[in-house]
Amino acid sequence: MAVLEVTDAQFNNEILQHPIAEFIVFYSVVHPASRILQPVIEELSTEFGDQLKFVKIDSFENPEWGLKYKVRTIPTIVLLRNGTEVARLIGFPIGDQNKLRLKTWIESNL
After folding, report:
1. CA distance linking residue 17 with residue 21, whole number of Å
2. How many Cα atoms are found within 13 Å in the side-chain-facing hemisphere of 72?
3. Which of 23, 39, 89, 109 could form an SS bridge with 77, CB 3.0 to 4.6 Å?
4. CA separation for the pair 66, 73 (Å, rounded)
5. How far apart are CA 109 and CA 88, in angstroms?
6. d(Cα 18, Cα 12) in Å, to the nearest integer?
7. Cα separation of 29 and 13, whole Å?
8. Which of the four pLDDT bands, split at 50, 70 and 90, describes residue 20?
9. pLDDT for res 83
10. What's the whole-number mean pLDDT along residues 39-65?
11. Listed residue (98, 89, 72) closest to 24, CA to CA
12. Is the pLDDT of residue 24 over 80?
């Protein structure tokens, strides 16, 4: 399953009204950690696509929902279930184990 990119205008329909849990990445295309995170998220969306809807939103271009979720650091990952936040990961661990760390975080919060 591919990662869906949404705008502020699409967020409500794509996220808050979705029947399965959502993995939301608040990122920016100009932020180095966000660029490193993107291929990892794509891989994990294939692995967990039946359990999570993977969505990304550029917080600089679309600030509304980042403000509503009090995103202060880019990237920030928010896991929602039925529109309610159940977990948050601020920043992104850079290094050899970044995919494993993120996968473990997902599994512990599903």
Report:
1. 10
2. 1
3. 89
4. 10
5. 9
6. 9
7. 23
8. confident
9. 80
10. 92
11. 89
12. yes
